[in-house]
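I would love for you to help me understand the pair of lines that follows before we discuss the fold together.
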Amino acid sequence: MNDDFVSVIIPAAGRGTRMGKSINKQYISLDKKAILTHTIIAFDKCPYIDEILIVVADNEEKLFKDKVLKEYKIKKPYKLVVGGSTRQESVYNAVKKVDERCTIISVHDGARPLISNKEIINTVLGAKKFGGCVLGVPVKETVKKADNEGFVSATVERSTLYNIRTPQVFKADILKEAYKNAEEKGIIGTDDSYLVEENNVKVKIIKGSYNNIKITTPEDLIYAQEILSSRN
């Protein structure tokens, strides 16, 4: 078992306009439960997780309680955190509210409900060993670089390329310092790892599953249902 205190932050305040729905995509039903409910269950059942922080939009706390908490009773200690205007701001709001005992922080997208227990544990152990790690999968397809006019300028060697996913997990002091540095210097990152990298900390890539998709479009929802059906 893990002797660290691990807090997981689950950002779930995004709108997800590409789903074409009137509600936040995290609350869309997948296999009779909200997408977000599946995500929370994965971390709630993992013995390496000690605390769950769910980041919700400032007008969706009641929706979360009415939807998710009626579908599943969270067993671990948890907190609801109101998100900001960006994902980065939302996660930072939660980083500031982790338990004072927290030594490792895991950040995982609320719209990635297919995360496995093995992946959660491997990233926690990766952060413990390396200080910081991200889950990723090797790029399968040929990657080409385009010039300003849209013509191929180079074919990129893909053997060292990864599509990065979540969880992204770091020792708590490393992630806190990275967010503080980003705030002071006005650094905007596409993910948490970028902020850590900008603070001169090396981040390890942990290989994960291609099934750990982020549900962004209606097609993703169909694929996710197929994966869940095969598991069942």
